[in-house]
What does this fold into?
Amino acid sequence: MTNLARRVAEGYGFQNFILGVILVTAVIVSTMLRSIPSMGHILMMLGLLLYVYGVLGFYLFREHDPERWGTFGAALLTPPQMLTLEGLDLRLRGGLRGGQPLRDLREESPHPALSPEGKG
It folds into this structure.
C-alpha cells in the first residue's frame, strides 16, 4: 500500500487524498515540461538523419525511380514515407494489377556497393 493510500485508509480524509493527487500530477507535469528540450534535440537528430538519407537517395536513385527520388523535394519526402510505410499498399496493389511491381533497385544501381554482386 502506498503512503498516500495508507493515509486515506487511516482516515486522513478525502481532501488530503485529492491534495495528494494534485501534488503527484504537478510533479508529473513539471517533469514532462523539463523533458521538452531533450525531446527537441532527439527530433533534430532524427530530422538530420532523414535529410541525409534523402540526399543520398536523390543522388543514387533519381534516374531509376524518378517518381520518388527524381526531384530534391520528393527525395526529402521519401524517407519519412518509407519509415512510416505510407503508400506501401498502393505500390503493392499496382504490382498485383499488372502495373510496375516492387523491384529491387540495387539491380539497376550505378553504385558498385549497392549492386547484388558488388560489381556495379
